[in-house]
Amino acid sequence: MGESDSAPTGLCGTDLIIDGWFHERGELWPGQAMSLKINKVLDHHRSKYQDVLVFESEKHGNVLVLDGVIQVTERDEFSYQEMIAHIPLFAHPDPKRVLVIGGGDGGVLREIARHSGVEEIVICELDQGVIDVSKKYLPSLAKGYDDPRVTVHVMDGAVFMEQNQNYFDVIITDSSDPIGPANVLFETPFYKAMHSALREGGIVCTQGECMWLHVDLIQPLVKSIGSIYTSVGYAYTTIPTYPSGQIGFIIGTKGRGECSTPSRNPTPEVQKELRYYTPELHKASFVLPAFARRAIFEDAV
C-alpha cells in the first residue's frame, strides 16, 4: 500500500514490538489490535515521509509496516493485490494505459503486468524509501517493476494527473489509511482529479477501507463522488492481516456502467497463476452484507 501516517502519536515501528511480537494498534480501529510474532527485524528507519519497518515474521513471511500499520505480508498480500488490480482491469474491455498511485511495494504492478494488452503502466509513489525496501525485502511483489512497460515517477500523484488529462483507461490508487499524508486520497477533489485524468469509458479503483469499521468514512465519500462518476460501486476482499480481516475498494466509472460483471476473463494460463481472483469472485465481491449495503448506499441517496 502507499504512504501512511496511522500509528498512534509518538510511536514508531519498534515501539510496537513487545516480547518478540509486533502489535498493530491504529487509531482508526480503536479497541482492537493485530499481532505477529517476529523472527528478526530486517530494516527500521525514518524515510522522508514516514517510519519504515520490515521484519521477518514466524508465519507470514516478510512484513512491511509504515508508521506502525501493516501494509504487506508475504503470506496474504495476493488477496489484496489481485482484487484491487483485476476488478477494474477485467471490468474494462480493452485497457491500454494504466496509472497506479501509491503501491510502492510493486504488487499492483505485478498484477497489471499479467494483462498482455496493456501497453503503458505508470506508477506515482511519493516515497522512494518504500520502493527501495520492497525491492530488497519483498522481491515477489517488487518484480512488478521489472516489466518493461512500467515507468516510475517519485512524485505526488495528483500533480502527475493534472499534467496528464484524459489519458488513462484505468487508475488504481493503492493508498493506506486516511490520516496524515494519505488523507487527501479520501477526499472529493482527489476523485475529481482522477476523473479528469481518465479517458471516456475509464475506471478508477481505490482502497476503500473496512466495512466493519469505516462506513462513516465510506458513505459520505460514495455520496460525494456520485455526482462526478457515471457509476460508483463498493467491492471487497478478505485478508487476515488487515483490520477485521477485510478491506474494500471504491470503484468509479467515466461514461460507462458499473463494474460488477467482468468484460473479459483471465486466460487459462493466467488463471492458473492467480491465487485469489476468479470471474465468479469478481461478481461476488460486489454483493455486500445487508448492514453495509444499507449504510453505504441506501443512506447515501
From TrEMBL:
Keywords of this entry: Polyamine biosynthesis, Transferase
A GO molecular-function annotation: spermidine synthase activity
Pfam families cross-referenced by the UniProt entry: Spermine_synt_N (PF17284), Spermine_synth (PF01564)
InterPro entries: PABS, PABS_CS, SAM-dependent_MTases_sf, Spermi_synthase, Spermidine_synt_N, Spermidine_synt_N_sf
Gene Ontology cellular-component terms listed: cytosol
Keyword Transferase appears in the UniProt entry: yes
UniProt-annotated catalytic positions: 174
Any Gene Ontology biological process: spermidine biosynthetic process
Family, per entry: Belongs to the spermidine/spermine synthase family.
Name used for this protein in its record: Polyamine aminopropyltransferase
High-level lineage: Eukaryota, Sar, Stramenopiles, Ochrophyta, Bacillariophyta
